[in-house]
């Protein structure tokens, strides 16, 4: 038994391959699902797969200064390569945080170095493309990606357009062929899997010695939220307009403050797309007016030594604004400086 076959049997035995109707991130329902998220709960399988990834890397003679796993399922495999083979690892966030350093890529980054990307399952390659885009913004060079499973749904072609070669440990054709050899699978289920995932333009696949030919076409519908407009006395900037997945950030002009969420996302709710929250508004910041301070009364001035003070106010301790006080000296003494003090 080959090493790849042993890996696939381990993945099947831990329940990662399922038949049924499953909703994916994009597209219609899928007649099968491959879930490798819980592989870290199976250390033997996790170690075996990680070793196979590194072997693939060496067999292909891929040189990498750093490695990065597509968040989040592929991060443990990058961590294994980092810790066991001392290749520095970078970690890319799914979204930028509003606090701290606000970095999308964590780790020591040296522009011009080569980074090898890892993924667990590839469908269209969109997650890899997003990760590569952020890594390339940091000046890193990405030419290759190693994945555990390729679902054969256009990911390899999409990545080639981005200058990325996709290398898989095995494909869904390999995994499903093995699954059919281990379990009794109804003919109708085999056809559903063929039609949904194994057929690519025109194809002929052999499963359990049955030959099936198929053709398919793809209809693409662009899902959009309602139009977004900047608030009065403010502005808005969106990543992809009002298309599903777009994120819009709002700001207010000077002397105005935002009332509501600073950002909204075009998301799916009950098979419909809508903004994650109501659009915020800009509210004018009230101006603080400083009231003039009225002149306050003064305390009675102290009499000079060897003299006295006489004021024109009848008050004994506090003298109103405008009061006049005169200073006098006793006989034999002369007053210096001020003769009259006005309050």
From TrEMBL:
<keyword id="KW-0328">Glycosyltransferase</keyword>
<dbReference type="InterPro" id="IPR000436">
    <property type="entry name" value="Sushi_SCR_CCP_dom"/>
</dbReference>
<dbReference type="GO" id="GO:0004590">
    <property type="term" value="F:orotidine-5'-phosphate decarboxylase activity"/>
</dbReference>
<keyword id="KW-1015">Disulfide bond</keyword>
<keyword id="KW-0768">Sushi</keyword>
<dbReference type="Pfam" id="PF00156">
    <property type="entry name" value="Pribosyltran"/>
</dbReference>
<dbReference type="GO" id="GO:0006222">
    <property type="term" value="P:UMP biosynthetic process"/>
</dbReference>
<keyword id="KW-0665">Pyrimidine biosynthesis</keyword>
<feature type="domain" description="Sushi">
    <location>
        <begin position="223"/>
        <end position="284"/>
    </location>
</feature>
<protein>
    <recommendedName>
        <fullName>Uridine 5'-monophosphate synthase</fullName>
        <ecNumber>2.4.2.10</ecNumber>
        <ecNumber>4.1.1.23</ecNumber>
    </recommendedName>
</protein>
<keyword id="KW-0210">Decarboxylase</keyword>
<dbReference type="InterPro" id="IPR004467">
    <property type="entry name" value="Or_phspho_trans_dom"/>
</dbReference>
<dbReference type="InterPro" id="IPR029057">
    <property type="entry name" value="PRTase-like"/>
</dbReference>
<keyword id="KW-0808">Transferase</keyword>
<comment type="similarity">
    <text>In the N-terminal section; belongs to the purine/pyrimidine phosphoribosyltransferase family.</text>
</comment>
<comment type="pathway">
    <text>Pyrimidine metabolism; UMP biosynthesis via de novo pathway; UMP from orotate: step 2/2.</text>
</comment>
<keyword id="KW-0456">Lyase</keyword>
<dbReference type="GO" id="GO:0019856">
    <property type="term" value="P:pyrimidine nucleobase biosynthetic process"/>
</dbReference>
<comment type="pathway">
    <text>Pyrimidine metabolism; UMP biosynthesis via de novo pathway; UMP from orotate: step 1/2.</text>
</comment>
<dbReference type="InterPro" id="IPR023031">
    <property type="entry name" value="OPRT"/>
</dbReference>
<comment type="similarity">
    <text>In the C-terminal section; belongs to the OMP decarboxylase family.</text>
</comment>
<keyword id="KW-0511">Multifunctional enzyme</keyword>
<dbReference type="InterPro" id="IPR000836">
    <property type="entry name" value="PRTase_dom"/>
</dbReference>
<dbReference type="InterPro" id="IPR035976">
    <property type="entry name" value="Sushi/SCR/CCP_sf"/>
</dbReference>
<dbReference type="Pfam" id="PF00084">
    <property type="entry name" value="Sushi"/>
</dbReference>
<dbReference type="GO" id="GO:0004588">
    <property type="term" value="F:orotate phosphoribosyltransferase activity"/>
</dbReference>
């Amino acid at each position: 038994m080959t090493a790849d076959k042993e890996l696939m049997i381990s993945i099947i035995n831990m329940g990662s391959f399922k038949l049924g109707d499953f909703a994916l991130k994009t597209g219609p329902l899928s007649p099968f699902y491959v879930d490798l998220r819980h592989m870290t709960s199976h250390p033997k399988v996790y170690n075996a797969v990680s070793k196979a990834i590194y072997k693939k890397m060496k067999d292909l003679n891929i040189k990498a200064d750093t490695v990065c796993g597509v968040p989040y399922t592929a991060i443990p495999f990058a961590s294994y390569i980092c810790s066991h083979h001392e290749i520095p690892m970078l970690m890319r966030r799914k979204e930028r945080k509003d606090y701290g350093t606000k970095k999308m890529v964590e780790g020591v980054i040296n522009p011009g170095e080569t980074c090898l990307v890892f993924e667990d399952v590839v469908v269209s390659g969109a997650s890899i493309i997003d990760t590569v885009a952020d890594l390339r913004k940091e000046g890193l060079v990405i030419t290759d990606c190693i994945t555990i499973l390729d679902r054969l749904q256009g990911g390899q072609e999409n990545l080639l357009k981005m200058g990325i070669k996709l290398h898989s440990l095995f494909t869904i054709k390999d995994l499903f062929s093995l699954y059919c050899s281990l379990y009794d699978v109804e003919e109708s289920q085999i056809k559903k899997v063929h039609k949904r995932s194994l057929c690519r333009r025109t194809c002929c696949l052999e499963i359990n010695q049955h030959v099936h030919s198929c053709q398919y076409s793809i209809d693409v519908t662009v899902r959009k939220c309602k139009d977004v407009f900047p608030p009065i006395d403010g502005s808005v900037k969106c990543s992809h307009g009002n298309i599903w997945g777009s994120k819009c950030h709002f700001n207010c002009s000077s002397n105005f403050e935002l009332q509501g969420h600073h950002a909204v996302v075009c998301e799916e709710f009950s098979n419909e797309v809508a903004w994650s929250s109501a659009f915020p508004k800009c509210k004018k910041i009230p101006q603080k007016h400083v009231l003039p301070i009225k002149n306050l009364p003064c305390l009675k001035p102290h009499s000079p030594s060897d003299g006295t003070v006489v004021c024109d106010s009848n008050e004994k301790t506090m003298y109103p604004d405008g009061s006049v006080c005169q200073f006098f000296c006793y006989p034999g003494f002369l007053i210096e400086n001020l003769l009259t003090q006005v309050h």
